[in-house]
Amino acid sequence: ELKVEQNPLFLSMQEGKNYTIYCNYSTTSDRLYWYRQDPGKSLESLFVLLSNGAVKQEGRLMASLDTKARLSTLHITAAVHDLSATYFCAVVGVGGGADGLTFGKGTHLIIQP
Amino acid sequence: DGGITQSPKYLFRKEGQNVTLSCEQNLNHDAMYWYRQDPGQGLRLIYYSQIVNDFQKGDIAEGYSVSREKKESFPLTVTSAQKNPTAFYLCASSILAIRGDTQYFGPGTRLTVL
Question: What is the Cα–Cα distance from A60 to B103, expressed in whole angstroms?
Answer without folding.
Answer: 23
